[in-house]
């Protein structure tokens, strides 16, 4: 089964995203902002455009601007990994991360969303900074990193769960 994307495409997309993030976090115009949020989707497997993914992304982007009306859009794009957006605001990055976790957990499909938060100095504020456990597996209630590392679930089982989570976002 081929989706037209290779491991190299995904690697190049990650490098491109890192370059954009580095530029945004560089001192200067955007460096005045205290925090930057990077919105992306976390769809497992080679197909990053599963039905409903774009609607989920746009919904969460809208939610970000409702919850944080002072957000300044920086960039929005699409690459081999799917859609992404960066926005900045003058807010304590730890508080921003707490509120982003609330958004990620506000609906079941939020498990497919990544809201990464960075301080003005480029330090990523993650769940560990907040003494919170990592994400839970899509399929079971174990730590996601452990299930991935130990290959506890078949690819079909994981994609089945992803499709179930995306169902409300399909036209």
Could you explain the architecture of this structure?
With 171 residues, the protein is α+β, with helices and mostly antiparallel strands. The protein has 5 helices and 5 strands, in the order H-E-H-E-E-H-E-E-H-H. The chain has helices at residues 7-25, 53-67, 93-104, 144-150, 155-166; strands at residues 35-41, 72-79, 82-89, 113-119, 124-125. The chain has a 5-stranded antiparallel sheet with strand order 2-3-1-4-5, sandwiched between helices. A hairpin with a 4-residue loop joins strand 4 and strand 5 (124-125). The radius of gyration is 16 Å and the shape is globular. The two termini are 25 Å apart. 25% of the residues are buried. The model has no long low-confidence stretch (mean pLDDT 90).
Number of helices: 5
Strand order of the main beta sheet, please? 2-3-1-4-5
User: What is the N-to-C order of secondary-structure elements (H for helix, E for strand)?
Assistant: HEHEEHEEHH
Helix content: 25-40%
Give the CA-CA distance, first to last residue: 25 Å
- From the alpha carbons, calculate the radius of gyration and give it in angstroms: 16 Å
Which spans have pLDDT < 50 for at least 5 consecutive residues? none
Beta content comes to 15-25%
- The mean pLDDT is 90
* Class based on secondary structure composition and strand pairing: alpha+beta
Give the overall shape: globular
The count of DSSP E runs of length 2 or more, i.e. the number of strands, is 5
Query: Largest sheet, if any?
Result: 5 strands, antiparallel
